[in-house]
Specification:
By secondary structure, the chain is of the alpha/beta class. It has a single domain, classed as NAD(P)-binding Rossmann-like Domain (Rossmann fold, 3-Layer(aba) Sandwich). It contains nine helices and seven strands. The chain has a seven-stranded parallel sheet, sandwiched between helices. β1, α1 and β2 form a beta-alpha-beta unit. The longest helix has 29 residues. The chain is globular, with a radius of gyration of 18 Å. InterPro entries: NAD(P)-bd_dom_sf (IPR036291), SDR_fam (IPR002347). This is SDR family oxidoreductase. It comes from Halobacillus salinarum.
Length: about 290
C-alpha cells in the first residue's frame, strides 16, 4: 500500500541500524526519503563501520520508494543548511517527515565511569552528536513544515521515561531527546506539526550482532554473551512502528508523547521481521528490574 507516495522524509542518521530500517520502511510505503549520515563508499566515519548511506538509499529504492543519499555531519550547521536547501529545491519546499536518529555515541560512552572519571571530551562530543545535532537539524528543517502547516517529527531515544540509564552522558542525551520532542510538541501546535519521541527495545543492530559475534540467522546465540539479548528485536520493528505512525491520519493524538515499539505493535498489530512480537517493556519489568 503506497500511501506515502507524495510525501518527503528526512531520516537523519540512516547509515545503519534503526535509521536504515526506518528509511526502508518509509520507502516501502512509497515515500521519497533523504538518507543522511557520515559514511559513504568513499569515506568512513569515526565509527569505522562498513555500512553506507548509498546502500541505504538503494534499499529504499528496492522497497518501493525513492532513496536519496546525502552525506551530512549533523553537528556542522553549514552541512545541515545545505541539506535542507537541497530538499527544499528538489521537493518544492515540501518536507512531511523528519526523523532525528543521529547518534554515533557507542565509542564515546564509557560505561562504569561516573561524570568525574568519564573522559570529558568524549562526553561532550556525545552530547554534540546526540543532542546538539538534533537541535540543529530541527532548527533548519522545521520552517519547511511550518510553511506547509503540517508535518511529523520523531526524536529517536532509548527508554520511555526520565530514569537514569547507567551513564551520565548517555542518560542526559536520551532524556534530552524525549524532552525535545515534548517541547517541540508545545511550540509547534499552531502549525499542525506532530512531535513525538520513539524508542526501540533491545535492538539487534548490525553493531550489536557483531559485538556478540552472531548473525541474524543465529542471533539467539548472543544470549550466551548477554542473557537479555534473547528479548531483542530487529531494527525493522522500529521501522514498522515509524511507518505506521506516518500512515496514521490521526497521529496527532500522540503529540508530545514518548512511544515504544512494543506499545505501537499492540496498537497497530504489526510484528517484527522474524514474525515475533517482542515486548521489551514487559521483559524489562519481569527480568531486568527484579
Amino acid at each position: 500500500m503506497m500511501n506515502l507516495t507524495n510525501q518527503t522524509a528526512i531520516v537523519a542518521g540512516a547509515t545503519r541500524g534503526a535509521g536504515r530500517a526506518m528509511a526502508i520502511k518509509l520507502g516501502e510505503a512509497g515515500a521519497t526519503v533523504y538518507v543522511t549520515g557520515r559514511t559513504t563508499r568513499e569515506e568512513r566515519s569515526p565509527m569505522g563501520r562498513k555500512e553506507t548511506i548509498e546502500e541505504t538509499a538503494e534499499l529504499v529504492n528496492k522497497a518501493g520508494g525513492k532513496g536519496i543519499a546525502v552525506q551530512v555531519d549533523h553537528t556542522d550547521k553549514d552541512q545541515v543548511k545545505r541539506l535542507i536547501t537541497k530538499v527544499s529545491e528538489e521537493q518544492n519546499g515540501q518536507l512531511d517527515i523528519l526523523v532525528n536518529d543521529i547518534w554515533g555515541g557507542d565509542p564515546l560512552t564509557e560505561w562504569g565511569k561516573d561524570v568525574a572519571d568519564h573522559e570529558l571530551e568524549k562526553g561532550l562530543q556525545l552530547l554534540k552528536q546526540a543532542v546538539q545535532a538534533h537541535i540543529l537539524t530541527s532548527h533548519y528543517a522545521l520552517p519547511l513544515m511550518k510553511q506547509n502547516n503540517a508535518g511529523l517529527i520523531v526524536e529517536i531515544t532509548d527508554g520511555v521515561d526520565y530514569e537514569y540509564r547507567g551513564n551520565f552522558y548517555y542518560s542526559l542525551a536520551k532524556v534530552s531527546n524525549i524532552h525535545m520532542a515534548k517541547a517541540m510538541s508545545e511550540d509547534l501546535k499552531a502549525y499542525n506539526i506532530t512531535s513525538i519521541a520513539l524508542t526501540p527495545g533491545f535492538i539487534r543492530s548490525e553493531y550489536m550482532l557483531d559485538l556478540f559475534g552472531v548473525t541474524e540467522e543465529n542471533w539467539q546465540e548472543g544470549a550466551k554473551v548477554e542473557k537479555h539479548f534473547i528479548a531483542s528485536e530487529t531494527p525493522f520493528y522500529i521501522g514498522e512502528a515509524l511507518k505506521q505512525l506516518a500512515l496514521d491520519k490521526d497521529v496527532q493524538r500522540f503529540n508530545g508523547r514518548t512511544l515504544s515499539t512494543w506499545e505501537l505493535s499492540e496498537i497497530y498489530g504489526f510484528k517484527d521481521a522474524d514474525g515475533r512480537q517482542p515486548h521489551w517493556g514487559n521483559y524489562y519489568k519481569n527480568h531486568v528490574e527484579k
